[in-house]
Amino acid sequence: MPTIMVDGQEIEVDEGGFFVHPDQWTEEMAPELARTAGVGELNEEHRRVIKFMREEYFAKGTGPTVRALGLSSGVPVKRLYELFPKGPAKLAARIAGIPKPRGCI
Predict the structure, then answer these.
(1) Which of 6, 83, 93, 104 is the catalytic position?
(2) Would 65 be classed as within a structural domain?
(3) 18, 49, 70, 80: most buried by Cβ count inside 10 Å?
């Protein structure tokens, strides 16, 4: 498996760049992961979505779809695409340090 360096730690990722071991993620990694993903500076809405993604993953074993994310996170779908261009669920999952959600292409 490939690895990446994030916040001084070597992290095992899959071929899509998603963490293999979500428990290795820390909040301090999020800004670096966001910059690498092209998201830029994280604001409170970004952080709310990232936290929600992690909670859903640990509760259900997968991150939410974009539709579920928009309905349950408190951030409307249109805004999710502004915050995480090119696929909100996928980008948010990568920054949250969880595997790619089921249903994402």
Answers:
(1) 104
(2) yes
(3) 49
